[in-house]
Amino acid sequence: MAMHGKNFLMVPGPTNVPDRVLRAMHRNSEDHRSPDFPALAKTVLENMKVVFGTTTGRSFIFPASGTGAWEAALTNTLNKGDKVISVRFGQFSHLWIDMMQRLGLDVTVFDVEWGEGLPIDMLSNCIAKDTRHEYQAICIVHNETTTGVTTDIAAVRHILDRYNHPALLMVDGVSSIASIPFKMDEWKVDLAITGSQKGFMLPAGLGMVCASPRALERSKKNNLPRVFFSFEDMIVNNDVGYFPYTPSIPLLYGLKESLAMLMEEGLENVYARHRRLATGVRKAVEAWGLKICCKNPKEYSDTVTAVVVPEGFDAQQVIRIAYEKYNLSLGAGLMKVRGRVFRIGHLGDLNELMVLATLAGTEMAMSEVGIPIKLGSGVAAASEYYMKTSKQVRGLLNNGK
Ligand code: PLP
C-alpha cells in the first residue's frame, strides 16, 4: 500500500538521518589513498573523541556495526581463557556475553531480572574477593536498549578503585554515546564502544571504539586472534591518515557532518534535549496508566522507553497496527520481553513534535488493540510538560542568553 508522508522512525536505532548529514553523504566515491583523504580521516578520528569524553584515549573506526566494535574491544585486549565479569539484563548484554563465551573467555555472568540495572553489591563482593586479580575485565552495557535501563558506570569505576583492582573497564555505549553523558576519561573507561546508527544520527556501518592508554598497552601483548579488527594495523595506517582497507567514505563524510552538528548544538544541550524529550514520553506513559519496563526511576533511559502492555495484550499487535495504519515504526520487545513491551526510541535527530506525533500514533494503535487508555491523555501530558519547560531549553540552546 502506498504510504504518504514520512515514515515515523521511532525505533531506538537506526535513528533518523538529518538532511545535512544526508547531503554530506551524497557524493561519488573517492580514492581513499589520495593525498586529500587524511584530512577527512584525521578530523573524524580526532573529533569523535570529544563525544566519547576522552583526550587521552585513542579512537578507532571500523567499517562494521556495534557488534564489530564489541569484538574489536575484546580481541585486542584479552587472552584466551581470561576471566571476565559481565551483567546480563537484556538482549544486548546477552549477545555481548555470548560473544565473550564464543571467543573463549571465562565469563562470570550476573543475571538480573530484565528491567533492573546493575547488582552493584554483587559486583562489589566479586571484586573484593578477587584479591589475586584474576579478573582481567569487567564488561558493562551502559544503556540496555532492550529494557531502557541506564547503568551507573561511575559506580563500577568506584568499585574497581576501592579495591585497587586492575581489571579493564569495557563499556558498551551503543545507545548512550552522543545522546546522554558519557565520560570516558572521568570514569576511566578502558574501552568505549558504539555504532554510527544511534546518537551519531548516521546509517549503520561504523563500529567506533576508543581505547585508553592502558588498553593499548595490553593490546601489544594479548593473544586473542584478530585481523580485520586489529588495533595495531589500524594504528599504523591511521597515524598517516589512512585505513588498512577500504573505508566507507560517504559514512566518514556523514560522521564529519554529524560531529559538526553535535558540536554546534553543544553536548550539554544535546544531553538536555534528550532528557527533556524522554521525560515527556515518561509523562505520557504515566498518563496512560501503564508501566515502564525499567524498575528504578533513577535508571530510566533518556534514549529509549520500553512500555509494558497490560496482561492479556500483545505488544506486537500495537507495533503492527502503528506501522500498517499510521506509518509509525516502534521498537519491538526482544527475547524475554517479546510481546510484553514495545519501545519508543527517543534519540538522535528529534524534537518535541516528532515525539508528540509518535505518542498520538501509539495511542491510536493501543486503543485499536483494546488497551484501555484515554485517547489524547499521553499527548496532553507530554505537551504540557514541553510547554512548561520550553523556556528553560530555549535558554540552554542559546547558551543561556
Ligand atoms: N549494544 C547495544 C546496547 C545495542 O543497542 C545494539 C544494537 O541495537 C548493539 C550493541 C549491537 O549493535 P549493532 O546492531 O550495530 O551491531
Write the layout of secondary structure elements.
Blueprint lengths: L7 E2 L9 H7 L11 H16 L5 E5 L3 H10 L7 E6 L2 H12 L3 E6 L8 H10 L5 E7 L1 E2 L4 E2 L2 H10 L5 E5 L18 E5 L11 E5 L1 H7 L11 H8 L10 H17 L1 H22 L2 E2 L11 E5 L6 H12 L1 E2 L11 E5 L6 H18 L7 H21 L4
Parallel strand pairs: 1-13, 3-4, 3-5, 5-8, 8-9
Antiparallel strand pairs: 2-10, 6-7, 9-10, 11-12, 12-14
Helix pairs in contact: 1-9, 2-9, 5-6, 10-12, 10-13, 11-12, 12-13
Pyridoxal-5'-phosphate binds next to helix 3.
N-to-C terminal Cα separation, in Å? 48 Å
Strand-pairing-aware structural class: alpha/beta
Question: Helical stretch count?
Answer: 13
Q: Let me know the largest β-sheet.
A: 7 strands, mixed
Give start-end ranges of low-pLDDT stretches: none
Mean pLDDT: 96
Radius of gyration: 21 Å
Attached small molecules: pyridoxal-5'-phosphate
Helix content: 40-55%
SSE succession? EHHEHEHEHEEEHEEEHHHHEEHEEHH
Shape: globular
Please, could you describe this protein's structure?
With 401 residues, the chain is an alpha/beta fold. Helix content is 42%, strand content 15%. It contains 13 helices and 14 strands. It has helices spanning 19-25, 37-52, 66-75, 91-102, 120-129, 153-162, 213-219, 231-238, 249-265, 267-288, 315-326, 352-369, 377-397; strands spanning 8-9, 58-62, 83-88, 106-111, 135-141, 143-144, 149-150, 168-172, 191-195, 207-211, 291-292, 304-308, 328-329, 341-345. The strands form four sheets. The protein has a seven-stranded mixed β-sheet with strand order 2-10-9-8-5-3-4, sandwiched between helices. It has a three-stranded antiparallel β-sheet with strand order 11-12-14. It has a two-stranded parallel ribbon with strand order 1-13. A hairpin with a 4-residue loop joins strand 6 and strand 7 (149-150). Helix 10 runs parallel beside helix 12 (352-369). The radius of gyration is 21 Å and the shape is globular. The termini are far apart. The mean pLDDT is 96. Bound molecules: pyridoxal-5'-phosphate. Pyridoxal-5'-phosphate binds at residues 13, 65-67, 92, 141, 145, 172, 174-175, 195, 204.
